[in-house]
Amino acid sequence: MSERIKHIGIFTSGGDSPGMNAALHGAAKAALANGMRISGVSRGYEGMIDGDFISLNEKDLQRTVHKGGTILKTARSDRFRKEEGRKAALKNLEKKGIDALIAIGGDGTFRGMLAFSELCTLPFIGIPGTIDNDLAGTDYTLGFDTAVNTAIENIDKIRDTAESHNRVFLVEVMGRDSGYIAIHSGLGTGADGILIPESSEDFNRLLEKIRHYHSQEELIVIVSEGDELGVGPVASKIREVNPSVDLRISILGHVQRGGHPSAFDRMLGIRLGVASVKALLEGQKNVMAGIVNNSLTLTPFEKVVKQHQVDAELQELLTLFYLK
Length: 324
Ligand SMILES: Nc1ncnc2c1ncn2[C@@H]1O[C@H](COP(=O)(O)OP(=O)(O)O)[C@@H](O)[C@H]1O
Ligand SMILES: O=P(O)(O)OC[C@H]1O[C@](O)(COP(=O)(O)O)[C@@H](O)[C@@H]1O
Description:
Blueprint: E1 7-12, H1 20-33, E2 37-41, H2 44-50, E3 53-55, H3 58-62, H4 83-96, E4 100-105, H5 107-116, E5 124-128, H6 144-165, E6 168-173, H7 180-188, E7 193-195, H8 201-211, E8 219-224, H9 231-241, E9 247-251, H10 263-281, E10 287-292, E11 295-300, H11 312-323
Parallel strand pairs: 1-2, 1-4, 4-5, 5-10, 6-8, 6-9, 7-8
Antiparallel strand pairs: 2-3, 10-11
Residues 14-15, 106, 130-132, 174-176, 225, 257 line the site of 1,6-di-O-phosphono-beta-D-fructofuranose.
């Protein structure tokens, strides 16, 4: 065990995602079992700058594993982007006696950690928490599985009404720069088209389908929010190409971020929470704990960048289902 680390600070940052509470529980359990204290920082970097700490009781955390959101609350912080904000945060950590940090968030959060590491030598470990699943260094991020299940449940319902009216539905799902939620929820609901930021071929193919559409059936098209056109312009183009289409738009929005975490996200949270403490004990710093091929992996923050390409197998599926 590392002699140096006595008191870990842990926080959630960026968009909340189901499974974050399980990760907090995993980390607290491992920290206490190894004789370390662990404190929560409320509202991510914002709380760090304000000195807003929360004592964590491992038994209480055990009762939050099934809950969506994050009990520590989260935030996006413009103040932390400035050196002044980071200096204030460091002062508060020193005052509190925190000598290591675990951050649960997305690539923005890890970029923040890298900027912070220019000011201090504290070891930082990351846990991938974003519904978008757009990080290198892990096959799955916390909350992605739950978000896809929520999207699927809602798209199935939309299909019922679409089918009854022979309507075309554009369903917008989340994913700021990434089509992972769109691909999984689209293939999982038998959607007739999927538009994602990583590809533009799919739109032309969809327009061909719409041109020959004769309103005897429903069509469901999933549009990732990060798609270069966006759901509004896609709708206009469809109406232009085939004015007879009875079209509706449904934006699933933040419903995808909430709700009880799936079994997968609960286990992922617990595994990564424990792994993050283990990494600190091994003397690691500035790395993210992830799962690759079902094995725990540590990846330097520098390499945890946005994935702008869906992986080859998914691309092949998209081609088979929507481009042939
Ligand atoms: N280059 C950066 N320097 C300092 N802080 C950053 C940087 N990039 C992001 N952050 C901090 O990380 C926070 C979370 O990032 P954001 O992109 O909103 O979410 P996520 O971590 O889910 O990707 C930001 O609000 C900001 O405070
Ligand atoms: O909470 P906000 O600011 O509305 O952010 C919405 C964005 O957050 C996400 O839900 C998750 O993004 P993060 O990587 O920041 O967690 C995106 O899919 C979406 O574009």
